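[audit] Reproducing an earlier prediction to check determinism. Same input, same settings, fresh worker. If the tokens differ from the archived copy the diff job will pick it up downstream; this log only records the rerun itself.
[audit] input (373 residues):
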Amino acid sequence: MHRTLSALLLAGAVAAIAPAPSVALAGAPIPEVGGVVPTLAPMLARITPGVVNIAVHSRVSEQNPLLQDPFFRRFFDLPQNGRTQERETEATGSGVIIDAKRGYVLTNGHVVENATRIDVTTKDNRRFTARLLGRDDETDIAVLQIPADHLTAVPMGNSDKLRVGDFVLAIGNPFGLGQTVTSGIVSALGRSGLGIDGYEDFIQTDASINPGNSGGPLVNLEGRCVGINTAILAPGGANIGIGFAVPINMARQVMDQLIRYGRVQRGRIGVAIEDLTPDLAAALKTAHSDGAVIARVDPASPAERAGLERGDLVVAVDGVPVHSGTQLRDTIGLTTIGRTIDLTIDRHGVPYDVRVRVEAARSSEEARRTYQR
């Protein structure tokens, strides 16, 4: 307080001894700052009505460990079957309206897991009971449907065009506080090996994502959804600036299948793949630094019929660059069954284009028998 007061007094003393022209300048109007002050408010006002809060009701079975002891049950004259008790629980999450006409809402699969009732609340405080169209554990994506009545959809972007350093916003319902917007950048792309989902190709961001944000959209500065916020890395239980979102291109493929079939039909071409390493690159005589190496071609598979060989390096699928084996597996696994894809391969330094038809993935038992043969 003393330091602030001294500064004010000093400023007054300077004004008192200043010449007359300075006094006149002090009373002059403040010049306008050039240009318009940047703000994201207009864009957010346009899209935030398309972000919803999700309340999930479920029943959880619980059993007291003491009830498993026959002596304890006999002593207190309790039933000898040791039946579990059920209790009602409620959890919150977020979602994004993708189709306003049909009322489709995209969210995370873990948000609606074991749900007995799902309530969706829009920004204007309308509440709907949602119908679960389907959920996919491998990608942690679920699709809900609510009555289509004056809804606002968030337009989808192209997550393949994201670059590290792009500004993004995370919108959701953290800790049940209500709709909240946080900002950050794309910190990394293609994150995998985290043990979160089976199909991992995450966008990493430092935009704050907290419990309750799951299922909400990650949007770019154009107001387009480029990801579905899914998880955070929190060693101490708090946000440390490392969050992950499912790319919207992957989520859209899953959504289309869930709406059509109620589940996801995995695709395959019959190859085993691995990442390209510097040693493999030298052995394969390729100038590429990343891609997916075909380590095995299954007999009588679409890959064999298309002419793919062991040691081929896949560098692109339908013109989209392939950076890793995980990316190629995810792309093929989520491709519509029966569709033909164009693979760009490098075979000992020579480029080739190969067209291969995607077929339905076999069960693990069928695959095991094939490999044994």
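[audit] rerun output stored. Observation attached for the diff report: The chain is about 20% helix and 35% strand.
[audit] end
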